[in-house]
Amino acid sequence: MLAREALLDRAMGPKRRKKSSEKLRRGRRPSEGLAFVARDPSGAVVGTVRLWDVTLGENGPAALLLGPLAVEPGLKSGGIGSALMRHAVAEAARLGHGAILLVGDAPYYGRFGFSADRTGSLAMPGPYERHRLLALELKDGALDGAKGTIKAAGRKVKALDFVA
Fold it and tell me: Cα separation of 26 and 162, whole Å?
């Protein structure tokens, strides 16, 4: 969706494509049923969040990687991001996923239950700030024994997906 990509560029800038999280998303499709947008009354995309399938370490448990969460810059602090987060977490739980990880600011994501308490044995591929790797267990024990580098999983983008 071109509108989503344009919003991400406005909200996050051109360096967004160099982030470690992006390496896990590149060439993949979001987890089935876990890509959301918020629209204004005219139908324009003003917020977005997607969750991606990942594996925690070599042959480790499945989980989701959230991101990026973005809101139209002029509409930040209006509750759009919070509504998208609540909806994404609820849908992931409803679909039976065990845990969600993300790289972000603990003061913001902590209110949704995310913390670094269970991520000390996990690593992102490429550079990242360890204290910003956060997780939320949707099922008790979903992160028990999880260790190693987070790896991309899930559906790959097909060449035909790029034909509009």
Answer: 13
H or E element: which one contains 108? helix 106-109
pLDDT along the chain (164 residues), means of 10: 76 70 86 95 93 94 93 90 97 98 95 96 91 97 95 84 49
| Contact predicate 27/156, CB 8 Å | yes
In whole angstroms, give the CA distance from residue 67 to residue 74: 20
Q: What is the pTM of this model?
A: 0.90
Neighbour count for residue 90 (Cβ, 10 Å): 11
Alpha carbons within 13 angstroms on the beta-carbon side of residue 122 total 29
Cis preceding linkage at 73, omega within 30: no
What length is written for the chain?
A: 164
Find out whether 22 and 82 touch, Cβ atoms under 8 Å: no
Cβ neighbours of residue 161 closer than 8 Å, sequence gap 6 or more: 29
How far apart CA 2 and CA 9 sit, in angstroms, is 11
CA distance 149 to 107: 24
